[in-house]
Amino acid sequence: MERESFEDNEIAALLNRYFVSIKVDREERPDVDHLYMAFCQALTGSGGWPLTIMMTPEKKPFFAGTYFPKTERYGYKGMMELLEQVGTLWATDEEKLRKSADQIVAAVHSGRSLPDKTTTPISDLKDSSESFKSWGNEVVSKAYSTLAQSFDSRHGGFGQVPKFPTPHTLTFLLRYAEDHPQDKALEIVRKTLDGMALGGIYDHVGFGFARYSTDDKWLVPHFEKMLYDNSLLALAYLESYQVSHFPKDAQIAQEIFTYVLRDMTSPEGGFYSAEDADAEGEEGKFHVWTPQEVEAVLDKETAAKYCAVFDITPKGNFEGKNIPNLLLGNIKKVAQDNSLSEEEVLQSLENPRQALFAEREKRIHPHKDDKILTAWNGLMIAALAKGAQVLGSNTYLEAAEKATTFILTQLRRRDGRLMARYREGDTAYLGYLDDYAFLIWGLLELYSANGKPHILQTALQLQEEQDRLFFDDEGGGYYLTGSDAEELLFRPKESYDGALPSGNSITALNLLRLARFTGDERWERKAEQQLLDFRSVLEEHPSGYTAFLQALQFALHPSQELILAGSLNSKELPEMRQLFFSTFRPFASVLYQEGSLSDTVPWIKDYPLDPSQVTAYLCENFTCQTPVHQVEEFRTLLENS
């Protein structure tokens, strides 16, 4: 507010016209702060800083609040409108304001209940964002209803075969469940994630997901593995883990990363694109087994146990051979027969799995598409960075950082222009919208994980470049190709979220997050315009835009910000960060005041840096609670927030 309002000439003019303005340093005058914070908490039910009080000349408050932007923003009343209305009320109905102030003071002083807030004359200032909230919430609800109707309650997933994972639909439902716990969104997510993890679409020997299932129960996949599917599915399992703390979710995400870092990572750190379905001209040949092949690797007793658990039979479940899977639930009988839990059975088969993997490695592998795409690498950077946040893994963080360095070194020209593809030293094709949008997403997740200012600065630079090259000044939204690209019959523009989210969808969320990170209204206005530009298609078929709707959910939801002030190398900072990310906070932003971020985010200087300790500022709706320094204090703060 200091930057947005108190240093603004228009706000100053209104303040000087109607008010005597007093700015209080709460550390110098804790008595004043404490007194009027009590009024704010009584009037609004909450408090925090900044604290905004309007009072009579006798120091009796008739209005209290916390954060107010200069003009209406994020759905908040603006200071300009508020000051004008209060000034007018004081001139036309001063007695009403004084009466309200007397009632408030008397009630707080005596400990009685306050008068109904509707008696406060300025509490009815209209919020013109209500219409935005109205259509937005309606679209989100319609999308959920459509998905719930098409949900396969027996096997998980949506619609008819073939079944695609579409993980952005699941992450939309996780966000929906935050506001609608009474609905079945979490149940839908749980059934679908479990079904995929049990089925043959998941590689139980070498890890990673195939592209889609040819049947309704996730048993028989199209065996091709895509980098983008595994990136987005890792994100979905990690977010589900944040919500439910189901250990299997974390395990699946970790196994996806094991697969990608082992098989799909170049020596330079970039990620390859895909692995084919075929080997030696036969689809799935690399992945399927007979009982005899298992028995040739494992001892007889272990082989029998493995085959029983993973449905490997003489008859076969795929063209006379077997796709390992856990769908039949044979593990329950094996567990009972051996007086073990199902988890203990699977753990006892980990060494046999490794032996089968080593044997499978001797087979002729499917062809690997070793081109490195900027867009898909951005998705995997986002997933690995999220893995570092949630699981606290330095391995994942280092892999995300190395891939980022590779992309920015090999796939970004000296003039800043992103390129789309790299292979064996050759960089080609001007980057498309998805290259920019997905990489910016990855950078924002990476900054949230490591706090290095140059990562956020690079994201901002790329967003500026994206706006310059791709924005449609006439029709709104972003074209798929840049203004410097080859001229085609027309410039395509995509918003539909299919197997991959669209660049326009991810951009809407990127813009909102950049606005929260930087406090720059320009990004907020662009984000709101992006949502409005695509309102008609969202309303018409919302379930086809579940990535886009996550930006809408972000815009509609109260914000949460965590500022960690202190050295990035301190012991407490990563502990606090992981505590924060141990639960699902999809509408939160994390910033790090490490001494140089103010070059990019000017307002961060208002959060003092103490070199001797980490200070955590937890803010909601741009209103901050009392800062804390110890990890246990921070834990308590989170539990009570």
UniProtKB/TrEMBL annotation:
Please name the GO terms of the biological process aspect recorded for this protein, alphabetically: carbohydrate metabolic process
Q: Where is the Spermatogenesis-associated protein 20-like TRX domain?
A: 1-108
Q: Which residues cross the membrane?
A: none
Give a single Pfam family match: Thioredox_DsbH
Q: InterPro entries annotated for this entry?
A: 6-hairpin_glycosidase_sf, 6hp_glycosidase-like_sf, Ssp411, Ssp411-like_TRX, Thioredoxin-like_sf
Q: What is this protein called?
A: Spermatogenesis-associated protein 20-like TRX domain-containing protein
